[in-house]
TrEMBL record:
Gene3D superfamilies: NAD(P)-binding Rossmann-like Domain. This is SDR family oxidoreductase. Keywords: Oxidoreductase. GO terms for molecular function: oxidoreductase activity. Pfam families: adh_short_C2. Residues 187-218 are annotated as: Disordered.
Length: 253
Protein backbone atom coordinates (compact mmCIF):
# COMPACT_ATOMS: atom_id res chain seq x y z
CA UNK A 1 0.00 0.00 0.00
CA UNK A 2 1.33 3.45 -0.94
CA UNK A 3 2.18 5.76 1.96
CA UNK A 4 -0.57 8.26 1.19
CA UNK A 5 -3.26 6.08 -0.33
CA UNK A 6 -6.74 7.46 0.48
CA UNK A 7 -5.20 10.67 1.86
CA UNK A 8 -6.50 14.07 0.74
CA UNK A 9 -3.67 16.56 0.22
CA UNK A 10 -3.96 20.28 -0.55
CA UNK A 11 -1.02 22.38 -1.76
CA UNK A 12 -1.12 26.16 -2.11
CA UNK A 13 1.17 27.49 -4.81
CA UNK A 14 1.19 23.99 -6.24
CA UNK A 15 1.17 24.88 -9.93
CA UNK A 16 4.91 25.36 -10.40
CA UNK A 17 8.30 24.86 -8.76
CA UNK A 18 8.54 23.12 -5.40
CA UNK A 19 4.77 22.97 -5.04
CA UNK A 20 4.30 21.19 -8.35
CA UNK A 21 7.09 18.69 -7.68
CA UNK A 22 5.61 17.98 -4.24
CA UNK A 23 2.15 17.48 -5.74
CA UNK A 24 3.54 14.93 -8.19
CA UNK A 25 5.39 13.16 -5.36
CA UNK A 26 2.21 12.87 -3.27
CA UNK A 27 0.33 11.57 -6.30
CA UNK A 28 2.93 8.87 -6.91
CA UNK A 29 2.41 7.78 -3.30
CA UNK A 30 -1.34 7.35 -3.78
CA UNK A 31 -2.78 10.66 -2.55
CA UNK A 32 -5.63 12.66 -4.01
CA UNK A 33 -4.20 16.14 -4.60
CA UNK A 34 -5.87 19.55 -4.72
CA UNK A 35 -3.85 22.42 -6.18
CA UNK A 36 -4.69 25.95 -5.03
CA UNK A 37 -3.30 29.00 -6.80
CA UNK A 38 -4.03 32.20 -8.66
CA UNK A 39 -3.05 31.13 -12.19
CA UNK A 40 -5.68 28.77 -13.57
CA UNK A 41 -3.80 27.80 -16.74
CA UNK A 42 -0.74 26.60 -14.82
CA UNK A 43 -2.89 24.92 -12.19
CA UNK A 44 -4.93 22.97 -14.71
CA UNK A 45 -1.75 21.91 -16.51
CA UNK A 46 -0.37 20.48 -13.27
CA UNK A 47 -3.66 18.71 -12.60
CA UNK A 48 -3.40 17.09 -16.04
CA UNK A 49 0.06 15.77 -15.13
CA UNK A 50 -1.32 14.39 -11.86
CA UNK A 51 -4.19 12.65 -13.60
CA UNK A 52 -1.76 11.14 -16.11
CA UNK A 53 -0.16 9.44 -13.10
CA UNK A 54 -3.54 8.00 -12.20
CA UNK A 55 -4.18 10.38 -9.32
CA UNK A 56 -7.47 11.99 -8.43
CA UNK A 57 -6.69 15.71 -8.69
CA UNK A 58 -8.33 19.11 -9.03
CA UNK A 59 -7.47 22.81 -9.17
CA UNK A 60 -9.26 25.50 -7.18
CA UNK A 61 -8.43 29.09 -8.08
CA UNK A 62 -7.48 30.82 -4.84
CA UNK A 63 -5.75 33.99 -3.69
CA UNK A 64 -4.45 33.09 -0.23
CA UNK A 65 -4.44 36.75 0.83
CA UNK A 66 -8.25 36.93 0.54
CA UNK A 67 -10.03 35.29 3.48
CA UNK A 68 -13.26 34.55 1.62
CA UNK A 69 -11.33 32.70 -1.10
CA UNK A 70 -9.43 30.59 1.44
CA UNK A 71 -12.67 29.75 3.24
CA UNK A 72 -14.20 28.74 -0.11
CA UNK A 73 -11.16 26.59 -0.93
CA UNK A 74 -11.50 24.45 2.20
CA UNK A 75 -15.28 24.27 1.84
CA UNK A 76 -14.92 22.99 -1.74
CA UNK A 77 -12.32 20.40 -0.74
CA UNK A 78 -14.56 19.00 1.98
CA UNK A 79 -17.59 19.03 -0.31
CA UNK A 80 -15.71 17.08 -2.99
CA UNK A 81 -13.45 14.82 -0.94
CA UNK A 82 -15.04 14.67 2.50
CA UNK A 83 -11.98 15.72 4.50
CA UNK A 84 -8.52 17.31 4.42
CA UNK A 85 -5.71 15.14 5.74
CA UNK A 86 -2.57 17.08 4.76
CA UNK A 87 -1.92 20.70 3.81
CA UNK A 88 1.31 22.10 2.39
CA UNK A 89 1.18 25.89 2.63
CA UNK A 90 3.69 26.64 -0.08
CA UNK A 91 2.42 29.83 -1.73
CA UNK A 92 5.17 32.43 -1.62
CA UNK A 93 6.60 35.56 -3.19
CA UNK A 94 10.12 36.99 -2.99
CA UNK A 95 8.73 40.50 -3.23
CA UNK A 96 10.38 43.87 -3.00
CA UNK A 97 14.17 43.86 -3.14
CA UNK A 98 16.49 46.73 -2.35
CA UNK A 99 17.60 48.99 0.50
CA UNK A 100 15.10 49.24 3.35
CA UNK A 101 14.76 53.01 2.96
CA UNK A 102 13.82 52.66 -0.71
CA UNK A 103 11.10 50.02 -0.30
CA UNK A 104 7.53 51.13 -0.89
CA UNK A 105 4.53 50.42 1.29
CA UNK A 106 3.26 48.18 -1.51
CA UNK A 107 6.54 46.22 -1.50
CA UNK A 108 6.12 45.60 2.23
CA UNK A 109 2.40 44.87 2.28
CA UNK A 110 2.34 42.55 -0.72
CA UNK A 111 5.30 40.48 0.47
CA UNK A 112 3.94 40.11 4.01
CA UNK A 113 0.41 39.45 2.76
CA UNK A 114 1.36 36.54 0.50
CA UNK A 115 4.03 34.91 2.66
CA UNK A 116 2.74 35.47 6.20
CA UNK A 117 -0.90 36.51 6.13
CA UNK A 118 -1.60 33.93 3.42
CA UNK A 119 -0.08 31.18 5.53
CA UNK A 120 -2.08 32.28 8.58
CA UNK A 121 -5.36 32.40 6.66
CA UNK A 122 -4.69 28.99 5.12
CA UNK A 123 -3.95 27.51 8.54
CA UNK A 124 -7.02 29.15 10.07
CA UNK A 125 -9.40 27.27 7.79
CA UNK A 126 -7.34 24.09 7.50
CA UNK A 127 -7.22 23.77 11.28
CA UNK A 128 -10.95 24.41 11.65
CA UNK A 129 -11.62 21.46 9.36
CA UNK A 130 -8.96 19.28 10.99
CA UNK A 131 -10.48 19.96 14.41
CA UNK A 132 -13.80 18.64 13.13
CA UNK A 133 -12.00 15.52 11.88
CA UNK A 134 -9.87 15.10 15.00
CA UNK A 135 -6.63 14.87 13.00
CA UNK A 136 -4.51 16.51 10.33
CA UNK A 137 -1.01 17.45 9.24
CA UNK A 138 0.24 20.85 8.11
CA UNK A 139 3.63 21.72 6.61
CA UNK A 140 4.46 25.39 6.07
CA UNK A 141 7.02 26.85 3.69
CA UNK A 142 9.51 29.06 5.50
CA UNK A 143 13.07 29.83 4.32
CA UNK A 144 16.61 29.84 5.60
CA UNK A 145 16.49 33.58 4.83
CA UNK A 146 14.68 35.21 7.74
CA UNK A 147 13.82 31.91 9.31
CA UNK A 148 17.44 31.25 10.25
CA UNK A 149 19.86 33.84 8.81
CA UNK A 150 19.70 37.55 8.05
CA UNK A 151 20.12 38.72 4.48
CA UNK A 152 20.25 42.35 3.30
CA UNK A 153 18.14 43.75 0.47
CA UNK A 154 15.22 41.33 0.95
CA UNK A 155 13.93 42.59 4.30
CA UNK A 156 10.16 42.10 3.75
CA UNK A 157 10.69 38.50 2.65
CA UNK A 158 13.03 37.77 5.56
CA UNK A 159 10.59 39.24 8.07
CA UNK A 160 7.69 37.28 6.57
CA UNK A 161 9.54 33.97 6.68
CA UNK A 162 10.70 34.57 10.25
CA UNK A 163 7.04 35.10 11.04
CA UNK A 164 6.07 31.84 9.34
CA UNK A 165 8.56 29.99 11.54
CA UNK A 166 7.06 31.37 14.76
CA UNK A 167 3.51 30.94 13.44
CA UNK A 168 4.35 27.28 12.86
CA UNK A 169 5.74 26.79 16.35
CA UNK A 170 2.95 28.63 18.15
CA UNK A 171 0.21 26.79 16.26
CA UNK A 172 1.97 23.46 16.76
CA UNK A 173 1.74 23.92 20.52
CA UNK A 174 -1.88 25.04 20.35
CA UNK A 175 -3.18 22.11 18.33
CA UNK A 176 -1.02 19.02 18.86
CA UNK A 177 -3.30 17.83 21.65
CA UNK A 178 -6.17 17.98 19.16
CA UNK A 179 -4.40 15.57 16.82
CA UNK A 180 -3.04 18.20 14.42
CA UNK A 181 0.70 18.06 13.77
CA UNK A 182 2.32 21.19 12.32
CA UNK A 183 5.88 21.67 11.02
CA UNK A 184 7.78 23.71 8.44
CA UNK A 185 10.58 23.45 5.91
CA UNK A 186 13.19 26.15 5.29
CA UNK A 187 14.97 25.67 1.98
CA UNK A 188 18.02 27.58 0.85
CA UNK A 189 18.59 28.15 -2.88
CA UNK A 190 16.63 25.55 -4.85
CA UNK A 191 16.77 25.08 -8.63
CA UNK A 192 13.63 27.07 -9.42
CA UNK A 193 13.17 30.45 -11.15
CA UNK A 194 12.58 32.12 -7.77
CA UNK A 195 16.21 31.56 -6.73
CA UNK A 196 17.67 33.35 -9.75
CA UNK A 197 18.89 36.91 -9.47
CA UNK A 198 18.02 39.53 -12.09
CA UNK A 199 19.18 38.54 -15.60
CA UNK A 200 20.79 35.38 -14.20
CA UNK A 201 20.62 32.03 -16.01
CA UNK A 202 20.13 28.71 -14.25
CA UNK A 203 23.78 27.87 -14.86
CA UNK A 204 25.00 31.19 -13.43
CA UNK A 205 22.80 30.70 -10.35
CA UNK A 206 24.15 27.18 -9.89
CA UNK A 207 27.75 28.46 -10.03
CA UNK A 208 27.00 31.28 -7.56
CA UNK A 209 25.40 28.91 -5.07
CA UNK A 210 28.17 26.33 -5.46
CA UNK A 211 30.78 28.85 -4.31
CA UNK A 212 28.85 29.85 -1.16
CA UNK A 213 27.37 26.52 -0.06
CA UNK A 214 29.43 24.05 2.01
CA UNK A 215 27.77 21.27 0.03
CA UNK A 216 28.89 22.92 -3.18
CA UNK A 217 25.65 22.74 -5.15
CA UNK A 218 22.15 24.11 -5.46
CA UNK A 219 19.25 22.12 -4.02
CA UNK A 220 16.69 20.29 -6.14
CA UNK A 221 12.91 20.69 -5.75
CA UNK A 222 12.57 16.94 -5.28
CA UNK A 223 14.75 17.16 -2.15
CA UNK A 224 12.28 19.58 -0.59
CA UNK A 225 9.35 17.42 -1.71
CA UNK A 226 10.93 14.36 -0.10
CA UNK A 227 11.15 16.22 3.21
CA UNK A 228 7.55 17.45 3.02
CA UNK A 229 6.36 13.90 2.38
CA UNK A 230 8.39 12.57 5.30
CA UNK A 231 6.97 15.23 7.64
CA UNK A 232 3.49 14.25 6.44
CA UNK A 233 4.05 10.55 7.06
CA UNK A 234 3.69 8.36 10.18
CA UNK A 235 7.50 8.07 10.25
CA UNK A 236 7.59 11.70 11.49
CA UNK A 237 4.89 11.28 14.15
CA UNK A 238 7.20 12.55 16.91
CA UNK A 239 8.15 15.72 14.99
CA UNK A 240 6.10 18.69 16.21
CA UNK A 241 6.76 22.38 15.62
CA UNK A 242 10.06 21.74 13.90
CA UNK A 243 11.51 23.72 10.99
CA UNK A 244 13.79 21.60 8.83
CA UNK A 245 16.52 23.53 7.05
CA UNK A 246 17.52 22.29 3.59
CA UNK A 247 20.39 24.52 2.50
CA UNK A 248 23.51 22.38 2.19
CA UNK A 249 24.98 23.75 5.41
CA UNK A 250 24.76 27.43 4.47
CA UNK A 251 23.32 28.49 7.84
CA UNK A 252 26.21 26.80 9.67
CA UNK A 253 28.77 29.25 8.31
Amino acid sequence: MARFEQKIVMITGGSTGIGQVTALAFAREGASVIIAGRRASEGEKTVSHLREQGAQASFIKTDVTVESEVAHLIKEIVASYGRLDIAFNNAGYLGGKGPLIELTETDWDTTLDINLKGTWLSMKYEIRQMLRQGSGIIVNMSSNIGGHVARPMVTPYAVAKAGVRMLTQSAALEYIKSGIRINAVSPGPIRTPMSRQANETDEQRDQRVATSSPLGRVGQPQEVANTVLWLSSPEASLVVGHDIVLDGGFTLQ
